[in-house]
Amino acid sequence: MKKSRSIALAGVFSALAIVLMWAGALTGFGTYASPLLAGIALIPVGLALGRRYHLLAFIAVSLLCPLLSADWEMNLLFTALFGWYPILRPTLEKLKNPLKLILKFLIFNVLTIGIEMLVMLVIMPSAEQPWLLLMLLALGNLTFYYYDYVLPRIELALSIKLRIGG
Question: Which own/partner contact pairs does 55-60 have at CB distance under 8 Å and 24+ positions apart?
Fold first, then answer.
């Protein structure tokens, strides 16, 4: 693929990720869904151009989203977890099964708890009920399990589509 086509492809999918993040901030209920979808939107960059371009697209989106949307929690979730997780996932898949699963959920829980603590203590201090936070974390783990389950299937479908279309 020519260099200009590679850059254009990365730019188009980066723009799509930014629009998804912006739409999530605009609607107000996309705080958790938008980072997931924006991370998925960057997968074609990695499949067509490789990890380096995928990483560059992630960095570009991570730098532009805080400038264009006001939802800091959503931006932190993308930058700290869902934006780079599709880049890291192939490396994690090479590990043995129990270790792989433990490491994936450890990464998710440590980063999610850290982000939520930062949001609750610094950005938006509020008095949330501890049981509600634990329930949200449990639902987040369930969502992450399905997200991790769906990612390879999305990658397969996109790689087939990219081969047919390109």
Answer: 55/84, 55/87, 56/10, 57/10, 57/13, 57/14, 57/17, 58/83, 58/84, 58/87, 60/14
